Fold this sequence. Notes:
The protein is an alpha+beta fold. The protein has helices spanning 28-35, 77-91, 100-103, 120-124, 149-161, 176-190, 194-206, 249-252, 258-272, 281-287, 349-369; strands spanning 6-12, 15-21, 39-45, 48-54, 71-72, 211-212, 226-229, 232-235, 254-256, 299-307, 310-321, 327-333, 338-344. The protein has a six-stranded antiparallel sheet, with helices on both faces. The chain has a three-stranded antiparallel sheet with strand order 5-9-6. The longest helix has 21 residues, at 349-369. The protein is globular.
Amino acid sequence: MQAQLIRRWIVTGSLLLLTLLLPLSCPAEADKAVESLARGTLLVDNTGVHVSVEGPLSKDAEEQADADSYFHIGSNTKAMTATMIAMLVEEGLLDWDTTVSEVWPQAAPSFDEAMRDVTLHALLTHRSGIRAFTAGRDWQSVPERSGDGRQRRIEFSRWLLAQAPAGQRGLYLYSNAGYCVASAMVEELSGNSWEQMLRERLFGPLGMEVQFGWPLDHDSMQPQGYLRSAGVLRPFGRSEGYSLPVEIAPAGDLSMPLGEYAKFLRLHLDGLGGEARLLTEESFAFLHEPVGHYACGWIVLDRDRETEEGVVTQRISSHDGSAGSFYLHTELNPAAGYAVAAVVNAGGDASRGLTESLAADAALDGSDSTK
């Protein structure tokens, strides 16, 4: 198997957080257990939006998931956060090179010397060196925060910037906390919360129905998330005592039906294909321009693809999202004019393998539609 960058959530204390690993093999029995859960695929192409969802809302439920069911998208939230921030950059609230010290000049002397000139763009491309917060133990040293989400993100960011970095600036280090700081920067300058700005600038204009947090937080007739532990799938969510800290919600805490997610993917397909909305073509191109392999909420790689004219190299933007109990895999192929996504309501390697396989099948349908 050829090595490639993927995401996998690991158990660390009471919190599951994202890290990068190499592909692992999946036991056949694990595949069977995950395949019996709720799962769905999405294809966005020149013929429209195609959604397929099947499986029970929970392991023992008779009620079935459908196209209106909400799934947690995990770190695919990052691309939405970056898109909203790009709107504020276009409006002149700040720019990609705005530093944390420019946003918090009075607090800047307390920041670690290596963090004072960290830029917005470095945070969104995981090149700031800031601590990752991809493990539960990362929160053990964090002081108590108070207030609403905006206040807590700003307070947490200012504390975090005073800590020594975890890596060298300019080198890749995946960081959920980096997206918190980037969001807190625009929250500080605008006076509005991340939640409010997403609703007003992205979800509202696109007509998207989105929930903050787990699907079951708002509706009992939604898919139950599962964690595989010791070979057993067990329910895992707020009712089991697990939720993501509001500080890193901008990095991965949204839920929505696949058809709603399609509206966001269509926005980016159109933006990269010469029909930009909400942002300029230049901003869409910038959001998908990688530093190394990572852009603003997207992994961007060149891949060879078979066509009727032979093998061509096309640039693919992709991302995986999981907070432990759901798994979403997404690929955007602007050159071929389609996007695909696949989701299952369980985390882990078996879910990664299943969603990649489902997305690959959907991509074949997308390839056929562009011929």
